[in-house]
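Hello again,

I reread your note about wanting to compare the complex against the isolated chains. To keep things tidy I'm splitting this into two emails, and this first one only covers the full assembly. Below are the input lines as submitted, including protein chains and any nucleic acid or small-molecule components. They are followed by the predicted structure of everything together. The single-chain runs will come separately.
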Amino acid sequence: MKPEPADRFDANELDDVVHGRVRLGIMAYLAGAGTADFVTLQEHLRTTNGNLSVHLGKLEEAGYVTLERAIVGKRSRTTVCATAKGQTALRAYVERMAKLVQALG
Amino acid sequence: MKPEPADRFDANELDDVVHGRVRLGIMAYLAGAGTADFVTLQEHLRTTNGNLSVHLGKLEEAGYVTLERAIVGKRSRTTVCATAKGQTALRAYVERMAKLVQALG
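Full-complex prediction:
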C-alpha cells in the first residue's frame, strides 16, 4: 500500500457507524473476542448501561451486530456478535485509518 | 511496537477532540499542508460553513489550532494553523489508532 499525503485523507470516507468512539470500542472488542455479553462490554468500555444500549442499537440497526437475549436464572443476559457485514465494515474502516497512520507515521 | 489484541484496544484513550470526524479531517489536512484557509478546508471536507466553524471553534478552544482573521480586499479570510499542542494530540491519536490497525491488520 503506497503512503498517501495526510492532506489527501478524506474524513468523509470514514463510516460514521463504526467511527463513533463507543461503537468502535465495541467492534474492536468483538473483532478480538468474537462474542461478548453486555456486562463484559460495559466493563471494558467503562460506559453506562443506557449509553451502551444506544450504541448497540445503532450497530444492530446497521446490521453490524446481532443481539441475543436470554434469561439465565432470574437475569436477562444479552450476547453480542459481530455479523459478516460488521466485520467487513470494521475492516474497511481500519484500512482507511491505516492510510492516515502511514501518512502521519 | 508490539501488536496488541484488538480486544485490548481502549476506545476511552482516544482524544474526543481529535476523533470527531470533521475535526480529524481538519487536523490531518493541516498535518500535511501545514496551514489552510477556511475555504480550502471547506472544499476539502465538503461541509457547510456553519459546521466547519463549529469544529474549528472546538479545536481552537482546545488549543489545537489558531485562527487568524484578516480582511483581504472586501472579504474576510481565515487562516488556520495547527499548534504544537495540536500536533502532539494528533500524533498521540494516530499512535493509538496504529495499535488498533496492527491488531486488526
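For quick reference: Residues 64 and 86 of chain B are 4 Å apart (CA to CA).

B.
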